[in-house]
Amino acid sequence: MQNRLARIMLDHETSIPLYQQLEQAFRQQILAGLWNTGDVLPSERVLAEVLNVSRVTVRKALDSLHTKGMIERRHGAGNYISPQADLIRDQHTLTRLEGLTEMLKARGYHPSSEWLVRDVRVPPTDCLVRLGLQPETPVAFLKRKRMADQQVVAVNDHYIAADLLPCPDALQESLYGYLDQQGTPITRALQQVSAINASPPLSALLDVPEGTALLKSIRTGYLLTGRPVELTETWCRTDCYDFMIEITR
Fold it and tell me: Which Pfam families does the UniProt record give (predicted)?
């Protein structure tokens, strides 16, 4: 147990509240399988002492984990990893295609977006190639900050075939939800994930110091017919976002 707690590193200098950092650290450990269903968490007093935070901070983090179904409370016995954590863990492997809105909702967060750009434009050449479009073909372009419980967790650049989204302002929240409703669901995607350091513009958008490690993903989404219609570039904060992949032999 001490080894697991030793992996939790809290930053007392950042603007992110300590209880949110602690909640995120436990959530990542649970999703990574470091805690199993039925495991009992240390008491609030022990957690506060080991992690050098107040019991109020610990209690707020545990309250949030309980609300989101990651832990359950047993009167007089403490906090235990909930069976629901296994379901959440199983639902969020890299092999399951879903949008960020769906993922955040499934994890118990309230997702929202701050739209930065919604227009129609000619995209970069590499986007045209990925989408199989002719030169100078316009597409719908969307840029937004993604929030979970009002905290910025990612920035998206979406390029969508113009016939699927002729009016970009029509999209309010979930891109995949909108396309599902229009009868043109994304059924398959190829996604490339890499590590980068935050540039000055990204650090400002994500509210992190310049040079902070980020995850960058590039996703190409396809219709059932095999036609590529979506290219999404996402820059994610590593303290608020994680991937899990199951590998079999």
Answer: GntR, UTRA
Is the distance from CB of 209 to CB of 203 less than 8 angstroms? Answer: yes
Q: What is the C-alpha to C-alpha distance for residues 176 and 160, in angstroms, rounded to an integer?
A: 11
Q: What's 36's DSSP letter?
A: -
What is the model's pLDDT at position 161?
95
> Rounded mean pLDDT of 204-221?
93
Cα 60 to chain centroid, rounded: 21
Topology classification of domain 100-237: Chorismate lyase (3.40.1410)
Domain 2-91 has CATH 1.10.10.10: yes
**Taking all residues of the chain, what is their mean pLDDT, rounded to a whole number?**
85
Q: Which residue, among 238, 243, 244, has the nearest Cα to 14 in the 3D structure?
A: 238
Listed in sequence order, the residues at least 6 apart from 238 whose beta carbon sits closer than 8 Å to its beta carbon are 212, 213, 214, 215
- Tell me how far apart the alpha carbons of residues 38 and 120 are, in angstroms, rounded to a whole number: 51
DSSP 131: T
Question: Does residue 223 have a pLDDT over 80?
Answer: yes
Instruction: Specify the pTM.
Output: 0.60
